[in-house]
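Fold these two proteins, one after the other.
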Amino acid sequence: MPMDHNDSFMNGLELLARLKAAHWDSIIEAAIVMLTSSNSQNDYEQVAHYGFKGIMQKPLTEDKLPSLVTLFSGGNQGY
């Protein structure tokens, strides 16, 4: 499931903190990719800390879809 880093309702890190608090770590590690427009190393470190499946730069375009498929098939984490 792609998740926006800076969603207006709840950003991805806030949602992940809630999922971790509910002990849903296996869902985070298996199914969530953070989408971000940020180039901040701190943001990438936070994504790695929370255990996302991976991180991808926005915009999510057609040419990036193969990388997304690779993430979900067990390939490189995209960090």
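Now the second one:
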Amino acid sequence: MGIGFKDFRKAPKLLGFASGPFESAVEAANAWIVEHSADVLNVETLTDTGGIGGISSTSQDGVRVWYRT
């Protein structure tokens, strides 16, 4: 028995230039957990840090589900 993880990113939006809502990642994670009867150990928020011209920003990019294998 061990541990594994699976990442769920926000759904792509119009022409791939933007991402969908954070909730799309949560919904995908919930569906996968139910479908696989996953024994969830922890859930983390995935963030994306970037910046332009000395101004930095952080956005919620998805979730990571840690589960027992």
